[in-house]
Design a protein that fits this description.
Aminopeptidase, transferase, EC 2.3.-.-, GNAT family N-acetyltransferase, acyltransferase activity
């Protein structure tokens, strides 16, 4: 059974493990060292403190993915703009779980007062994230070329944006 809900403290090891997979094997994130659970605990607290959503999708009792909206940038004038993050466990892709997570994060971020949502997507050859965001009305706002070096490759990022209200 699939269940979408706010992240709980007990979910953080699963969140950390999913993210660690992408840190170690891909270019979806430019982190080079997986953050420990304690960093995820602090991130969860900061997101909750900002009144923003941090959700997990649970499948068969396991965390199959997570998504959150966090502040886009720390300067005060950006306070109404958020950046989304969505990650799925490797075996959980292609089943609509990303759509479930992103749709709910968009809805909750808008209800929390966010006006714009930005996605910064690494363009490393897998178009799944670009397609997911396009399905929710995100439009390309720009491209930053060769801004990340990971696994001996220069990676572009694509900036996507959509209005929330």
């Amino acid at each position: 059974m699939t269940k979408l809900r706010p992240v709980a403290d007990a979910d953080l090891p699963g969140v950390a493990a999913i993210y660690a997979h992408y840190v170690e094997t891909g270019v979806a994130t430019f982190d080079e060292t997986p953050p420990p659970v304690e960093e995820w605990r602090a991130k969860r607290a900061a997101i909750a403190g900002a009144g923003l959503p941090f959700l997990v999708v649970e499948d068969e009792g396991e965390v199959a993915g997570f998504a959150y909206a966090g502040p886009y940038r720390p300067k005060p004038a950006y306070r109404h703009t958020v950046e989304d993050t969505v990650y799925l466990a490797p075996g959980a892709t292609g089943r609509g779980l990303g759509r479930l997570l992103l749709g709910e994060v968009i809805d909750r971020a808008g209800r929390a007062g966010a006006r714009q949502m930005v996605a910064v997507v690494a363009d490393g050859g897998d178009p799944a994230s670009l397609r997911l965001h396009a399905a929710f009305g995100f439009e390309q706002a720009g491209r930053l070329r060769s801004v990340g070096l990971k696994h001996d490759r220069w990676i572009d990022t694509v900036l996507l944006q959509r209005a929330l209200r």
